[in-house]
Amino acid sequence: MSVLLEVRDLDAVYHTPEGPVRAVDGVDLTVGRGEVLGIVGESGSGKTTLAMSLMRLIKPPGRILGGSVMLDGEDLFRLRRSQMPARRGRDLALIPQSAMHALNPVIPVDRQVAEAITAHQTGRKANRKSALHAARERLEEVGIPPERHRAYPHELSGGMRQRCVVAMAVANRPKLIIADEPVSGLDVVVQARILRLISTLRESHGLSMILVSHDLPTVARVCDRIAVMYAGRIVEVGGSGAVFENPLHPYTRALVEAIPRMHSPGQTPQPIPGDPPDLHDLPSGCNFRPRCPRAFSDCAEVDPSLEEVEPGRRAACLLHKDERR
Ligand SMILES: Nc1ncnc2c1ncn2[C@@H]1O[C@H](COP(=O)(O)OP(=O)(O)OP(=O)(O)O)[C@@H](O)[C@H]1O
Ligand SMILES: [Mg+2]
Question: What is the CB < 6 Å shell around ligand 1?
Fold first, then answer.
């Protein structure tokens, strides 16, 4: 599979009154053409900051400190700021975490999708009528019936609104979609429908996608590969099945053990011990050490880097460093 997106050593920081917070810390990742990469981690692990950094949409007090983001051979971080809007929507599109806020309450949804289309029509005056026609096709494609195309967002259900946001994101047939918690806040049945819709669009248009979620089972079901984030770092990455069924990193294992399992009532879900890390005051050595059931003395000294443990699987944990020896 050829590589579409290659992120190298991405750092992003928030300058807060209590000091800088490194919300994305040396992140490396790749997404292949047609591939769906899941990013999971607890609240505050830096998933949204990573997503916004890739779009170059991070706002003060947040700032990108360094790294490179190659999309189809072009380094997005080397483009002038003024060149980014043309890339957004057309090359890479975001489904933001609060999708409700992505819609304008006073504009009918078909016109909003049309605006997403005309925003990228350059040269001669964009053709509004054909854009509106195309917008309605996009809305049909995501399952909004024609009689609802002229509705205002508040006239639609949460699931319908989310479909509109998806329609806007795919309106210009981007190469990569970054979906930040696209189904959180929706009920389970609607979540399943939206995820199915996203999978269908991905297949029909050969899209690549980054799917951000705190819900590991969802990500494992939908994604080809999973990257697990903890305190701004990727601590494990590998094929979905492998990561979910045989986690290498103790944090991934803890995420798996925290999942309620309806079909095996004997197994009670185990909440992850301790508190999520305070990014202002990270421990020495491994960030996960204070919560890790398998920590040993070296873990306080050595900050483990993400290294290959098996072909296609990487983890940042000294347990596996020993195995390799
Ligand atoms: N505007 C901001 N100012 C200061 N710190 C911020 C800001 N936004 C995020 N942070 C900090 O950056 C860290 C990562 O936040 P981020 O929103 O990226 O996490 P997340 O993984 O998306 O969480 P969630 O699952 O809750 O959406 C957190 O510690 C958060 O407190
Ligand atoms: Mg988030």
Answer: 14, 16, 21, 23, 41, 43-49, 61-62, 97, 214, 279
